[in-house]
């Protein structure tokens, strides 16, 4: 698969500087962003040898939905600023590769455009100051085919970014015009989200299972599940929110130990080895954010398809080299921390 660094350089060469910096930036002085990818590399792989690895099966399930592998598309907003086909292209590519798509509620393609070409998909949502509007969006997404809602909780306040950026916010046909056409999410988003909101969303009639994204502690994971979430997602928003926050790779084990439900993870996942490390630490699946945006910028739907296929092939190779023929065989004995 294409190296992440090469992908970034290809994207940088074609994107306007202000757009490139919007995708690339972290918060603060980018401590958490910088730490994300190297944190996975602290876990060395311990191959089980010799093993018969003639047939390796990367398929698995997420909340019961069958998918071709353990790496999927994290929600990223404003995709039409990097490519005219935006989220619709990403949805098509995810569908073609048997991957799950999580659509940002700051999508610049409409629910209808996306659902027409998507395979399995979930909607990422924020609790908005207007809770009725929040409920309406979740119901509309469920009616359009979303199989779950991913509630992002790590943006109670929108952090200042490290780099200056600019882009045209009036592109495409957004799901929530207010959210997609204003860069300032803080104006719309509720700053008072609590476990009660999870309870409320989980109980919405016409709703779907709730996954909570942005959890970095075991006690919070437990509380979210007790409030009605069906799964949690370890994430620090790609280093774009609390700078200095613990890398997902380090936070993952504590969260996995705290609950029996599915745990997903994102942040700095750049190779199939990283995905296998995440699974060995107990994640059900890994998600990628920036790599998908760069691949979309460079090659539209084809670019994202090649990226996702590349990730799956890399996972398959890592499984073979570590002596695993199915996802279930990837266990904690496969990694050791340096
Ligand atoms: C340009 C960009 C936009 C993002 N937009 C959203 C969003 O709308 N909602 C959300 O929950 N997370 C958003 N994220 C965070 C991603 O879902 C994900 O947590 C993060 O990108 C994972 O880290 P990675 O980029 O290192 O793979 C965004 C990230 C980026 C880079």
Automatic annotation (TrEMBL):
Keywords: Flavoprotein, FMN, Oxidoreductase. SUPFAM superfamilies: FMN-linked oxidoreductases. GO terms for molecular function: oxidoreductase activity. Residues 1-338 form the FMN hydroxy acid dehydrogenase domain. Its cofactor is FMN. Gene3D superfamilies: Aldolase class I. Its EC number is 1.-.-.-. Belongs to the FMN-dependent alpha-hydroxy acid dehydrogenase family. This is Alpha-hydroxy acid oxidase.
């Amino acid at each position: 698969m294409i190296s992440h660094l090469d992908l970034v350089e290809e994207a940088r060469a074609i994107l306007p500087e202000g757009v490139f910096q919007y995708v690339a930036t972290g918060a603060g002085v980018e401590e958490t962003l910088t730490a994300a990818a190297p944190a996975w590399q602290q876990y060395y792989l311990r191959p089980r040898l010799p093993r018969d690895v003639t047939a390796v099966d990367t398929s698995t399930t997420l909340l019961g939905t069958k998918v071709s592998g353990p790496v999927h598309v994290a929600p990223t907003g404003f995709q039409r600023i990097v490519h005219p086909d935006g989220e619709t292209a990403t949805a098509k590519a995810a569908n073609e590769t048997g991957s799950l798509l999580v659509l940002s509620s700051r999508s610049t393609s409409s629910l209808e455009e996306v659902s027409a070409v998507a395979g399995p998909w979930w909607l990422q949502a924020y609790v908005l100051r207007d809770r009725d509007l929040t409920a309406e969006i979740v119901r509309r997404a469920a009616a359009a085919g979303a199989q779950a809602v991913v509630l992002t909780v790590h943006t109670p306040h929108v952090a200042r970014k490290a780099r200056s950026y600019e882009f045209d916010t009036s592109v495409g046909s957004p799901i929530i015009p207010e959210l997609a056409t204003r860069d300032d999410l803080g104006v719309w988003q509720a700053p008072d989200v609590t476990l009660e909101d999870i309870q409320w969303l989980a109980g919405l009639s016409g709703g779907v299972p709730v996954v909570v994204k942005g959890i970095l502690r075991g006690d919070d994971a437990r509380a979210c599940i007790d409030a009605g979430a069906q799964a949690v997602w370890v994430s620090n928003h790609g280093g774009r929110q609390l700078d200095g926050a613990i890398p997902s790779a380090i936070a993952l084990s504590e969260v996995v130990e705290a609950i029996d439900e599915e745990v997903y993870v994102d942040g700095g996942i750049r190779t199939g080895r990283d995905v296998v490390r995440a699974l060995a630490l107990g994640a059900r699946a890994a998600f990628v954010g920036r790599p998908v945006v760069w691949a979309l910028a460079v090659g539209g739907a084809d670019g994202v398809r090649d990226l996702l296929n590349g990730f799956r092939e890399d996972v398959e190779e890592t499984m073979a080299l570590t002596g695993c023929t199915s996802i279930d065989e990837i266990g904690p004995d496969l990694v050791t921390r340096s």
